[in-house]
Amino acid sequence: MTMTMRAITTYTASSSASASSSASQVEDEDDSTKLRALPRVEGRAERVKLRKQGRVPGVIFAPGQEEKQLVSVCQKEISAAVRKHSLAGVQCTVFNLEVQAQDEDGNAEGEKLNVRVLPKQVFMHATDRSVENVCFLAVEPETKVRVKVPVITQGEDVCPGAKKGGFVQLLRKDIMVTARSDQIPKNFLMDVSTLDVGKVIKIADLQVPEGVQITEAKMDLPMIRIGGKTRSA
User: Could you give all domains of the chain from N- to C-terminal order, each with its CATH number?
Assistant: First the structure.
């Protein structure tokens, strides 16, 4: 599978008590959506060796195929991607993975293979929170995938409920959706600037872009609530 990286289409959604229409924007390709990989061999000893060399073991799967490709990526590069996009965000961001073939002595050999991938699983160390392992899914632009899209809020500083002594509760940090790999929402940006104490935004209030389908089982569950008690005058 040889391809070049395309621009990633991202979407945001705003809401008062219910979500308004979604706005869209295109995120240009930059270094944060590029990763370089090298082939590796199987085995625990090899994984330990790679981590000591500042590399993270990984694997590339293709939809509907049992065959996998073992690779390793630079710890600094994948960690920088996690810092920029967040752990949840990096798992719904498409990357251009440049795989360089090597000979038996570890020297670069042959052409580089550019693979469009989604980091479906990123495993973090329990103590130091460094990236331990990555499972990549190779995708074409039209490939449909299920991913969790992060939920973030804005407008807390002018939220009527917060000004009265309440607080914004983010009850769902992400929402499961199905979308083409080139139409995955970057996040759901929810505006709480008009919400009073006791008001909620439910999953069903989200208005997602065309081609994106919410695949949550219970759409009536709240995502955001303005909790607390109002201060007496």
Answer: 8-28+144-227 (2.170.120.20), 31-138 (2.40.240.10)
Q: How far, rounded to the nearest angstrom, does the alpha carbon of residue 112 sit from its chain's CA centroid? A: 25
| Alpha helices in 91-177, H assignment, sequence order | 160-163
Rg (CA), the chain: 21
Q: What's the CA gap between 210 and 195, in Å, rounded?
A: 27
Q: How far apart are CA 74 and CA 63, in angstroms?
A: 25
Provide the strand spans (E) within 19-171: 19-27, 34-39, 55-61, 68-74, 95-102, 108-124, 131-138, 144-154, 167-170
The whole-angstrom separation of Cα 200 and Cα 192 is 9
d(CA 96, CA 117): 6
Classify each residue of 208-223 as buried b or exposed e, where b means 16 or more C-beta atoms within 10 Å of its C-beta: bbeebebeeeeeeeeb
Per-residue pLDDT tens listing for the chain (233 residues) = 433 222 222 333 333 333 333 333 334 445 668 999 999 999 999 999 999 999 999 999 998 888 899 999 999 999 999 999 999 999 999 999 999 876 666 666 777 889 999 999 999 998 888 999 999 999 999 999 999 999 999 999 999 999 999 999 999 999 999 999 999 999 999 999 999 999 999 999 998 998 999 999 999 999 999 998 765 55
